[in-house]
Structures are given as C-alpha cells and as structure tokens.
Amino acid sequence: MKYRRLTKEQFEELHQEFINFLATQSITNDEWTNLKANKPELAETELDVFSDLIWEGVLNQAEYLEHFAPQHMYLFRLGEDKMHAIVVNVTKDGVDITTQEGYDWLRENLLDESVEFLQADKEYTDDKNADKFKMIEQGAVITKGELYHYFNKLIN
Questions:
Q1: For the residues of 39-64, what is the DSSP string, one character each?
Q2: Which residues pair with 141 in a beta bridge?
Q3: How far apart, in whole angstroms, are the C-alpha atoms of residue 86 and residue 37?
Q4: Residue 156: its pLDDT value, please?
C-alpha cells in the first residue's frame, strides 16, 4: 500500500465508486460478500488498492495545501515541478492563530513588526504525490488557495 487505507467514513462516502471499482475487477456483490467471509486477506488487498487509487486521484488534483500551527501559517502552491511556500510567522507572545481570537488578531495586525513573511520554493522528491501525502499526514489540508493568493498578493 502506497498511502493509507481510507477511513470507514470515506469508504461510505465513496460507496458507489467502490462498487464500480469492484465491477472493473469483475467482482459481483455476492462474490465480494464471499471474499470478505472466506478470503479476508484478499478483501483487504482490494480495499488497499482502491484506497491508493482514490489517493492518487486526489493528490494529482491538489493544487494548494495549508497548515496552521499556533505561531505559523504554511501556505503551499503545488506546482508541476516544485512547490512554492509562503510562511507567516507570528512572534507576539500569547497569540495563537489556530484560535479565532488569534486569527482575528493576525488579520488586524498584518503589518505589525511581530508578523513576518517568508517564501521559498521546494523541489519534489522522485515521488511528488508521496511528498504531498506526507504533508497531509502531518496536518496540512487541501484548499482552493484563497489564503495563498491573498498573501502572495500582499507580499509580492
């Protein structure tokens, strides 16, 4: 397995897609029920293969990631050859931008001396999707890039 198995909730959301996946494997509903009962390791393999296919599709389409920490905001544009990162650091004591109060403080004090902006490009390893997945596993979420674009305009 290249990524990780989808959660039960994710499988429930993708129920129809999983049925279609089994159909492409020529596995009927009765055969799937039999597989789960009599060859659970083979059923587990099918779940893993399906999970990897879904992750590949999601990661191929992901264009932006965001990751918030108490004093840092990491905004990534996932380009074809490299990712571009914008980092917002808050050095003011007592401000936690993962809370509404801290985030509101940041919005109102973007030009404060305790707010700094950094940006950098980072090359992918040989497996671009594995790089993206690792960031998601570390807490990043896929977004449409609104914050990235806002801060990119602000600092460039």
A1: -HHHHHHHHHHHHHHHHHHHHHH--E
A2: 66
A3: 50
A4: 87
Q: What would the two tokens of residue 156 be? A: 């460039």
DSSP-assigned beta bridge partners for residue 74: 67, 87
Q: What is the pLDDT of residue 15?
A: 92
Output the pLDDT for position 46: 94
Whether pLDDT at 125 is above 90: yes
- Tell me what the pLDDT averaged over the chain comes to: 95
CA separation for the pair 33, 30 (Å, rounded): 5
112 phi and psi angles, rounded to 5 deg: -65, 150
Structure tokens at 66: 């965001």
Assess whether pLDDT exceeds 90 at residue 69. yes
Alpha-helical runs (H) found in the chain: 8-13, 15-24, 29-38, 40-61, 100-108, 128-137, 146-155
Query: Look-up: residue for tokens 């914050």?
Result: 147
Rounded to whole angstroms, the Cα distance separating 118 from 134 reads: 22
- Cα 89 to Cα 112: distance, rounded to the nearest angstrom: 11
